[in-house]
Amino acid sequence: MKMPTPDAAIVARRREIADHLQRLLAPESVIASDEERRVYESDGLTAYRQPPLIAVLPSSTAEVSAVLAYCQVEGIKIVPRGAGTSLSGGALPLADAITLGLGKLNRVLEIDLPNRTVTVQPGVTNLGITRAVEHAGFYYAPDPSSQIACTIGGNIAENSGGVHCLKYGLTTNNVLGLEFVLMNGEVVRLGGKHLDAGGYDLMGVLTGSEGLLGVVTEVTVRVLPKPSHLKAMMIGFPTSEQAGECVARVIAGGIIPAGMEMMDKPAIHAAEAFVHVGYPLDVGALLIIELDGPECEIDAYMVRIEAIAGECSAVSCRVSRSEAERLGFWAGRKAAFPAVGRISPDYYCMDGTIPRRRLAEVLARMEALSAQYGLKVANVFHAGDGNLHPLILYDANQPGELERCEEFGAEILKLCVEVGGVLTGEHGVGVEKRDLMPAMFDEHDLDHQMRLKCAFDPDHLLNPGKVFPQLRRCAELGRMHVHHGELPFPDLERF
């Protein structure tokens, strides 16, 4: 995995740049020492590390604007960073770039329950939004497994999902308004508390743009009333293929649960050893299905789901009898990633999405790939919307294992595309999937995406080296190049 060659002239100016930034921000908000910069050398994709040129921690939109405007003039790259929980290397620093941390922008600005909206700064955690409104019986629906730590700004960058995105949508379906700063320092507002706006969906463009277009400094989200009733089912199957078939049949039957998650045997055993919630250890796969709404509707759906599961050879079915038991069902699922970390020195978390009807097939082929590469896999994922999260277990201390793990992961993602899926569901492309983009997009597709990037950031200073498999200059895509104020062929008539 190669990153852009650092600009030696910029690296040589580190002290000068830091001194200037200390005039724009509080001195303690500029981190330039070797020891302190190392704190920011990686995000959640810890296989890759690189200390930044400098890290800065602005406290306001005005400070973000000042930093970006200065960097635009000086030609200094910027890597935006939220909580650093990205699993695709989206916040991986560059040796000649400033890491712009948004952790100090962490205030809840407004709670407007009559309009069912909350406005926050980007450093507020995902779970922090729910905690701000739960006293009034409301919550924020998207709930990534890292919700206790990940921030709403990072959720915007990656278009994060979570357990309940099956019924309530991903981040893009729950964001109403954004304030963001362009690379030249200009502050732009999109949307608001209203449901929708006319014109191009620029807010949709920003959501999932992985820090390549602008830096988000304020977010307005919708919050929902807590459902009147919630129940969860825990259904065991002999094999992952049978559990996958059950998922496809439930959705095909017109039942849309609030959440529908799947764990295979390695993940079940790891989670149970970690949280001790009573997961069955004699099954090959486990479905956790949550239903919400009126109690009579939930009960009716549960009868239908149990019947479908029986047709798919389910060997156990347990229904939560209390709120504590329901939360217990989810405790293992929410803790699955750290639980797997207890059974392997390292793991590589993948993220691809496939059509639900291909689940059984893909899981079987993934098992064959596991044998081929000699690396075990633990599967825990959003089964209801086909968003896979295979955890490839490896040991980075063993020569060649990381490289073999990367090759295995690439084959999984190519398989996802082959069966009609996509490279990412919610983790983003970052550096992890960057070089696989041609498996899904041809050159024309990538050029059109790059043109959009050029419209927001023509000098490619925002998060370079991410998403696009090779660097392109905007002039290479047909932009009119102006050199020293002169257009090419000035004698030609312009239309």
Automatic annotation (TrEMBL):
It comes from the Bacteria. Its cofactor is FAD. It holds the Pfam family FAD_binding_4. The keyword Protein biosynthesis does not apply. Gene3D superfamilies: 3.30.465.10, 3.30.70.2740, Vanillyl-alcohol Oxidase, Chain A, domain 4 (1.10.45.10). Keywords: FAD, Flavoprotein, Oxidoreductase. InterPro entries: FAD-bd_oxidored_4_C (IPR004113), FAD-bd_PCMH (IPR016166), FAD-bd_PCMH-like_sf (IPR036318), FAD-bd_PCMH_sub2 (IPR016169), FAD-linked_Oxase-like_C (IPR016164), FAD-linked_OxidoTrans_Type4 (IPR051914), Oxid_FAD_bind_N (IPR006094), Vanillyl_alc_oxidase_C-sub2 (IPR016171). GO terms for molecular function: FAD binding; oxidoreductase activity. Residues 48-226 form the FAD-binding PCMH-type domain. The keyword Repeat does not apply. This is Lactate dehydrogenase. It comes from Aliidongia dinghuensis.
